[in-house]
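Section: Multi-chain targets

For targets with more than one molecule, the full set of components is provided together so that the structure can be written out for the assembly as a whole rather than chain by chain. Components appear in the order listed by the source. The example entry contains two components.
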Amino acid sequence: MSTSPLIDIDEIIERYPGKPEFLIFLLQDIQAAYHYISREALELVCDHTGVPFSTAYATATFYQSFRLEPRGEHEIKVCQGTACHLKGSERLVQDLERKLGIKTGETTDDLQFTLETVNCLGCCALSPVVVVDEDYTAQATSRKLDKVLKDVTAR
Amino acid sequence: MPVATTEAASAARLNSPQDLASLRDSILAQRDPNQQEVIVCYGTGCLASGAQQVEAALKKSLAKAGIDAKVRPLIKTTGCRGFCSRGPLVVIQPQGLFYQKVSAADADEIVDSTLVNGQVVERLLYKDLQTGEAIAREEDIPFYKLQHRVVLGRIGTIDPTDINDTIAAGGYQALAKALYQMTPEQVVSEVERSGLRGRGGAGFPTGRKWKSALAAIKKKGYPAYVVVNGDEGDPGAFMDCMVMEGDPHAVLEGLILGAYALGAHQGYMYVRAEYPVAIKHLTIAMDQARALGLLGKNILGSGFDFDVQINRGAGAFVCGESTALFTSIEGRAGEPKPKYVRSVEEGLWGRPTVLNNVESWANIAQIIEKGGEWYASLGVPHSTGTKVFSLVGKVNNVGLVEVPMGTPLVHIIEDIGGGVPGGEPFKAVQTGGPSGGCLPYDMRDVAVDFDSLTKAGSMMGSGGMIVMDKRDCVVDVARYFLRFLEEESCGKCVPCRLGLTRMREILDGFSRGVGSEKDIEDLVSLAQAVQDGALCALGGSAPNPVLTTLKYFKDEYLAHINEKRCPAGVCKDLITYGIDADKCTGCMTCARQCPQNAITGEKKKPHVINQELCIRCGICMESCKFGAVNVA
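Its structure, encoded as tokens over all components, is:
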């Protein structure tokens, strides 16, 4: 995850006109800047767009890419596309869950890693694929992942 | 990828077809067809396997060799060339030399041997799978030779971030033709004549959709909208992504033509958020088109105004469904609505709307330019034209394949795809993604077109084609798709929300060896209830993988239930790992890797697995270099 310099929330809010149709745009920009959407941020978005809090909450929880909890410094995405599934991606997920001591969707206590699964990254030729931050591990194996995790922590 | 040359940015607005023609002439005049060009594929697959490093190394080697080009970039990065399993790919023009699995370390040799001395680097060539013979030129490789590329035609030859490259290759000619020589009605008729059917999966005739929209506009008046569905959500399908990344102007030009045909002034592109490069390239394409007067006010001086906004998806498969997609553009949770009224009458913001898939839009410009009849001459009578497939799974040549509609399935998988690694016949193919069906080897001669696939119990879908071999378990695959759709179900209607969960639970049982033939009957009856009762196509087509695998592979289901056995060796609860004492060298790798410390044995002596401790994670099998770990 690239650690972007903290952007002022008001600057993000002002990017779009105060209309309900820009709710998702705002949530995406906030997610991109802070890696999650805090309750305060969501309230500010509601004030700006005129969307009721309940609707904004429903929308934020409907879409997979929005997070309402803080995320780990490094994001691990295990592709669960069909090609990856056939080549054993589920085993990789279980392996990472064991290694990190968390379940998919969770963040380690030290806020180092968040483990996620995604539905197809569009590079099926490399299956199974695991992406840590921006780095792709092609034909991933338990052993390769040991090394990747070690390298990331050492960085 | 290098951002647009300043040439495009500073170019003057084009106010007529003549302006466009002279811009094209001037670009072509500056180009020497014999000048060498190094093309580095920047498709997702090649990028993930290091294309950027290859490009950087090539640049360095070129600088070292003192080669420089004044007119056009010597190194060009393009969209996906489609042969993803061979990436990173580098092509040298004008010879058409095809180098595969290139690494940064190969750069000096490519520059010295090929660019300076005109020699071929033999070891980087593709070797024919059967004969082992090296093939030098891209067009002679069976994977490419046997395809018919229409939509993918320009991809891999143009730099998608430079509009001049697209214009040089004939881009926006169709738009000029339509705006100045055709009435909107003629554009619609041409599309109708082409026989083009929606490439998103449902296969509704595009021309007829546009005609109904025109009728609705007549009744309700304007505004009306045109929308690109780029929410390609099928896992294992990436052709739309590659079209948007590799030839964004084809999508844009098609959309502008559609807008002209309908008199729409505002369009939307709804693109999956997981495709950041596609979003970037579309944005650059729009900016460059706007600067040239090909988008925005008074397009090409014709008086026609049209502009586009990109909406990024936020991770919801159901948003590929038309009504859910509109709701999402409107800024809300993307739940589908009942379709008592069609979206051509009441779509986005309740207005007449034409929504077409990326690949459909990308066909339009060529249909207008070359004529509907030309398009209809490709393919078969009720499924005209070509279709792009993403061929993945247990197949040698993984990548993007474009063939005329009606091509036999076996031709795609074995002749173009090179068959299953190891040479045995494939076991099954899943077409149409999670909503499609699973066809067995016996059905290999089926023609891949809308109607033949539906008749076989599968569907065209958006064009994912997933090849499975004997190590893939159909119960597991059916369960995988069902679990995917269960997670992606928006939960609005009961048949989908509860039906899919219940079906998945039955399959969970099967994968543990729990269940009876009565459960199979229940599964089928539930499947029918979901098909009939679900509100949208997500639920309506969700049972397809289950029903087709049951139809063609019932024995495998019965083996799970009656014999508590997974013939493919996949379902964890029904398999055991063992070590072949004859093959085991006692290298201890598996013992060190085993997370349960379940493997014991002395150095250089055969090891054994303690079944009590084994959690069947498969790490031992994956780590064994001698193939000594087996599964039964």
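The mean pLDDT of chain B is 92.
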